[in-house]
Task: structure prediction
Amino acid sequence: MTTYSPDPSNVAAYLVVALKRLSAPCEEQVSILEGIGVPVDELALDFDSAVHTLWVLSEAGLITGELVAPLNEINGLLSAISGEENASYWTVAALCHEDVWNEVRQRSQDVLRVMSENEALAAVVDGVEADDPRY
Result:
């Protein structure tokens, strides 16, 4: 039986794009979302999908707990505002004005900074943009 293992460089790029989208200023986030035709919650959905593939990067030796913990914290912030009872957080107005979104932006920037200092990940961080249509 053949097992499938995703390419770590693609997984890293997907994670970096998700982080760059989360860390972008609100106006840029809105432009990206409008450009790809998706609602605000897609920012969290893409990031959540990326977090669920961290095992690939861990197995490849590309990330350690130094990155996993803050990535899980960001995911926790987004999970805390999920659900129908929190629908007000998933609007363009909230994206631009709610404190939780500013916290998500800052933490995402912090993780990207750590990733850019990692020799194995720096090229990925520099090589993809938040509006990359491949991701």
